[in-house]
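Hi, here's the filled form for the chain we discussed.

Project: internal
Contact: R.S.
Residues: 98
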Amino acid sequence: MTNIYVGNLSYTATEGDLRAAFEQYGKVSSVSIIMDRETGKSRGFAFVEMPDSEEAKQAIESVNLAEVAGRKVTVNEARPKTERRRGGGGGGGGRRRY
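And the returned structure, exactly as it came back:
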């Protein structure tokens, strides 16, 4: 299974638009447009899963910089999700001692 990142996606693009663009190159398992939790609107990127790695490679090369729903998208193989650190970013406040 190959997970593909699609960036610079039009906010009006639908899962059907993406499926149509990628199915020209092979079977598409799933399409997920990432939505903002608060507004419910697209965040401008998505993930497409294709079961065949050769078909996925061809799709990545062909759809990258192609127009989908009126906008040229950037397409590449998705990087694995990394753990995000939670919590404050400070050094504990207070005075610095030198």
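Let me know if anything looks off before we file it.
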